[in-house]
Amino acid sequence: MRHLLSTAGLSRADALAVLDTAEEMDAVNRREIKKLPALRGRTVVNLFFEDSTRTRISFEAAAKRLSADVINFSAKGSSVSKGESLKDTVQTLEAIGADAIVMRHWSSGAARQLADSGWVRSAVVNAGDGTHEHPTQALLDAFTLRRRLAAATGEDLVGRDLAGMHVVIVGDILHSRVARSNVWLLATLGAKVTLAAPPTLLPVGVSAWPCEVTYSLDEALDARPDAVMMLRVQAERMGGAFFPSAGEYTRTWGLTDERFARLTAGSGALLSEPVVMHPGPMNRGLEISPAAADSPRNTALEQVANGVSVRMAVLHLVLNHDQEVRP
């Protein structure tokens, strides 16, 4: 795997290779000394043109635990604010010695442009590009679901996909790169995916995605899914009114206390206790109630912890793509 740009083109074999490698990285993260020499002498640059907490810190921790040198680059306060182009910025970073560039950018397709342009020889990892994709978030979500599935069934994790699972993704699909990456990856791994959102928050062409669509959250919950993934309402990307009011959104699309209480396993569910997922940050009281946010069934913090293991696996694989994938 030379780059990680999208889950839409990620094969089942590559996805399982990341998840299986992440299991071994997770074992490292449970040790007293959380360190591997796998990337000693390599330099990873976190190039972030948008604000981030979880993703940037997770990638930094992942690279350091693999013994890589890390450079954190923020567009704010850099020459980007003076008008420097993306091409000149990344070529400057590679001249300094970057072996891998982890990039978050406000423009959809920016990571693909960087990888395909020939501007740099570095490995490129997409940490979120506009409203397009966020592949490592989808991988850590799949890792979290696979862990829960193994705990429920007692099956071996290695080589296990998500066949038979049903995941409902709720809310602002239109502006969510997390939703897009999850739809493609979960479908590749054999899961059934249902999108539940108002028509105004669904993208054009969603009918061609490998998922089902419903305009009723209550209907989606009645199907007794294994997991419900609540998405943040991305007000910063909204140029107009996509729903009448915050209160109306919560009543219709929020995971309220009443809806959370109804979230129980059905006859076809693989998990005996359905889980609630959220990529963060959570808008408490808008898309998710405080009770649901603080419940042990909410995997948000588990997802954050798993993100380090998954990103360790991704960095290891893209920087050692011509070697044996096992750490």
Automatic annotation (TrEMBL):
<feature type="binding site">
    <location>
        <position position="82"/>
    </location>
    <ligand>
        <name>L-aspartate</name>
    </ligand>
</feature>
<feature type="domain" description="Aspartate/ornithine carbamoyltransferase carbamoyl-P binding">
    <location>
        <begin position="2"/>
        <end position="146"/>
    </location>
</feature>
<dbReference type="GO" id="GO:0016597">
    <property type="term" value="F:amino acid binding"/>
</dbReference>
<feature type="binding site">
    <location>
        <position position="280"/>
    </location>
    <ligand>
        <name>carbamoyl phosphate</name>
    </ligand>
</feature>
<feature type="binding site">
    <location>
        <position position="232"/>
    </location>
    <ligand>
        <name>L-aspartate</name>
    </ligand>
</feature>
<dbReference type="InterPro" id="IPR006132">
    <property type="entry name" value="Asp/Orn_carbamoyltranf_P-bd"/>
</dbReference>
<feature type="binding site">
    <location>
        <position position="177"/>
    </location>
    <ligand>
        <name>L-aspartate</name>
    </ligand>
</feature>
<dbReference type="GO" id="GO:0044205">
    <property type="term" value="P:'de novo' UMP biosynthetic process"/>
</dbReference>
<feature type="binding site">
    <location>
        <position position="137"/>
    </location>
    <ligand>
        <name>carbamoyl phosphate</name>
    </ligand>
</feature>
<dbReference type="GO" id="GO:0006207">
    <property type="term" value="P:'de novo' pyrimidine nucleobase biosynthetic process"/>
</dbReference>
<comment type="pathway">
    <text>Pyrimidine metabolism; UMP biosynthesis via de novo pathway; (S)-dihydroorotate from bicarbonate: step 2/3.</text>
</comment>
<feature type="domain" description="Aspartate/ornithine carbamoyltransferase Asp/Orn-binding">
    <location>
        <begin position="274"/>
        <end position="317"/>
    </location>
</feature>
<feature type="binding site">
    <location>
        <position position="281"/>
    </location>
    <ligand>
        <name>carbamoyl phosphate</name>
    </ligand>
</feature>
<dbReference type="InterPro" id="IPR002082">
    <property type="entry name" value="Asp_carbamoyltransf"/>
</dbReference>
<comment type="similarity">
    <text>Belongs to the aspartate/ornithine carbamoyltransferase superfamily. ATCase family.</text>
</comment>
<keyword id="KW-0665">Pyrimidine biosynthesis</keyword>
<feature type="binding site">
    <location>
        <position position="134"/>
    </location>
    <ligand>
        <name>carbamoyl phosphate</name>
    </ligand>
</feature>
<protein>
    <recommendedName>
        <fullName>Aspartate carbamoyltransferase</fullName>
        <ecNumber>2.1.3.2</ecNumber>
    </recommendedName>
</protein>
<dbReference type="Pfam" id="PF00185">
    <property type="entry name" value="OTCace"/>
</dbReference>
<dbReference type="GO" id="GO:0004070">
    <property type="term" value="F:aspartate carbamoyltransferase activity"/>
</dbReference>
<keyword id="KW-0808">Transferase</keyword>
<comment type="function">
    <text>Catalyzes the condensation of carbamoyl phosphate and aspartate to form carbamoyl aspartate and inorganic phosphate, the committed step in the de novo pyrimidine nucleotide biosynthesis pathway.</text>
</comment>
<feature type="binding site">
    <location>
        <position position="54"/>
    </location>
    <ligand>
        <name>carbamoyl phosphate</name>
    </ligand>
</feature>
<dbReference type="Pfam" id="PF02729">
    <property type="entry name" value="OTCace_N"/>
</dbReference>
<dbReference type="InterPro" id="IPR006130">
    <property type="entry name" value="Asp/Orn_carbamoylTrfase"/>
</dbReference>
<dbReference type="InterPro" id="IPR036901">
    <property type="entry name" value="Asp/Orn_carbamoylTrfase_sf"/>
</dbReference>
<comment type="subunit">
    <text>Heterododecamer (2C3:3R2) of six catalytic PyrB chains organized as two trimers (C3), and six regulatory PyrI chains organized as three dimers (R2).</text>
</comment>
<dbReference type="GO" id="GO:0006520">
    <property type="term" value="P:amino acid metabolic process"/>
</dbReference>
<feature type="binding site">
    <location>
        <position position="55"/>
    </location>
    <ligand>
        <name>carbamoyl phosphate</name>
    </ligand>
</feature>
<dbReference type="GO" id="GO:0005829">
    <property type="term" value="C:cytosol"/>
</dbReference>
<feature type="binding site">
    <location>
        <position position="104"/>
    </location>
    <ligand>
        <name>carbamoyl phosphate</name>
    </ligand>
</feature>
<dbReference type="InterPro" id="IPR006131">
    <property type="entry name" value="Asp_carbamoyltransf_Asp/Orn-bd"/>
</dbReference>
